Amino acid sequence: MSIPVTLVDYGAGNIRSVTRALEHEGAEVILTASPKDIIRAERLLLPGVGAFGHCMRELGTRGLTEALKEYVTKQRPFLGICVGMQMLLDSSEEFGEHEGLGLISGRVKAIAPQADKERVVLPATGWMSLNTHSRVSHPLLGDELAGEAMYFVHSYMAHPQNPHATLASYRYHGVEVTAAIAEDHVMGVQFHPEKSGPAGLALIRRFLSL
Asked: Which residues are catalytic, by number?
C-alpha cells in the first residue's frame, strides 16, 4: 500500500530526485503548489535549493506561507530538506535579513564568521558523518543512523534556540554544524537524503513510518 506524501512545489526545490527517492520507498507523491492540498496533507515535505530569501519569497508569491503554518497545527509529520530545513526557523542572515516560517525558534547563520572564511572552505560540500545527540530521542533518526555519512552542500547553518531541538551535527574544519533538527512533528535535515544512498533512503523510510 502506497504512503501518501505531499511534496511542496514552489519552484525552488530538488523535486525530481526527491520524488524518485520517495517513490523508491513506497510513497505516493502528491506534487502541489495548492494551499488547500498542503493544509489537508497527511504527511508534508518541503524541499529547498538555493538562497533562503529567494525560497521564502517564492513561498510567499504562491500564497503558501500561511498554508504551511496552518498545516503544522494539524500535528502531522512535516519534514524540511536543506534550505527547506532552514526555513523552519525564525530568520536568516544569508544575503541580508530574511524572515522564516517561525515553526522552530532559532536563526540561520553562516557556518564560519567573515573572519574565519580563509580557514573554513565554503560551501561545505560532500559526505559528512552524523553525530547523533544522545540527549535527544526522536524517531526520525533513531540509533541506526548514528555515524552514517550523508551528502551536504551549504554555507549557512541552523541555530535552534532550544539545544534539545538539535538531533544531529557534523564536524567541519573544527566547527560543529547542525545536521538535523526537530520539535515534535516538525523536522528538518540539512543534508540531502535523496542523494545520500542507502542511509538517506533509511531516513526517508523513517519519515514515511511516522
From this structure: 82, 192, 194
